[in-house]
Amino acid sequence: MLKLRFLIFGLILCPFLSFSQNDFFKGYMVKLNGDTLVGYILGKEIGSTLSQVQFKSNTGAAVQRFSVEDCIAFGLYDRDSYERHTVNVSQGEVNLGKLSTGIDTTSKRVTVFLRVLQNGKNLKLYTYVDDIRPRFYIKEENEKEPVELMFYSFYDVNNGSQIINNPKYQTQLLLLSRKYGVQIEEFKLERTLYNENDIVKVVSLINDYRKEKSKYRPFTFYVGGGVSSLAIKYDGEHALAKSTATSKNAVVPFVNVGMDIYINPVYARTFFRIDAEVGVLTSEHSIENKETTPVITENKHDFKQFSGTLSVSLLRNLYSSDKQKVYLGLGIAMRYADTKDNIKTFRYSSMYNESPGLDFKKISLQIPISAGVIFFKKLDASFTYVLPSTISDNYVAYGIKLNKLKLGINYRF
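The structure corresponding to this sequence follows.
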């Protein structure tokens, strides 16, 4: 069973570790000689800046790869654009576990692709991300190359447990704002963090730039419903855990609401799903074991539950087009259950006994694995399998596990 679970997790994770054909988007590439190629280019949601261009002349063509030696610019229409530049790249770490003792001002001079964040009337803003850290670059119109906005983090030489942050980029931005006659209060710059949102806001002020509202929504809401099949099983050393025991599955309709939050709305490939689900009816469960030799022996456990679930899943579109998307992923869920009519009966020959059944957890954790299809950006049909989870209290020798299969349909808005 353990190997099977690892296999399931491996199959789920594979799509997140590789690109599919549908990660190619319409775009262009400018070669060193100035020729422009129009076709499809591989995009990237997160992580390091692209170090090469993967280009296809059409959706069915073979992939061609171009490096900074072959290309001066490329872009994905309405998404991202990149330019080739030779720049100084700082080498100082900002990862807490890799900080230097004393400031590290070393840099490397390299030719790389910089992603364009803003092209304004005074400044052009870029970003470059590698295995060390994210960086931001500024280029003035009359300058030959972009200049890095500098941020240092290091341990104090005299006190090895104290971390010093040197936000030199704040001073750089202050001087640029004064150069172009833009008044920005110093206290606002002091609150500017070294991240894309904050840097873009300040550069937008210097450029007097009004960004148009993006057509790519960062999240989508939905409402829906469906039906769940709930199966229970005793596990461990118990009469109801024998192979001869039989159980009655409960089929329960449910309603749900939730939202999908995209990691990068521009590409909308990978997203978190937050879902709240509640059963419309009480589920009725029964498990029994009958033996006829040497005398009739019967063990039975009946109970009812009203349940609801709150889950968070990480999903990825394996196939994506304007009319249809196919996704797969897994998550973690918190199930709340209110148990009633919890009765255990025992019959031995003519003797009969009735007593309270096992105690149940109010809250239990589950791992859902989901697959689904989104039609015309509005209808979402999904199938979810929930790995077996223990719903009874923590008994040493035995317990009750719940299996769940779910079919649902949501309307997205």
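The two ends are 40 Å apart (CA to CA).
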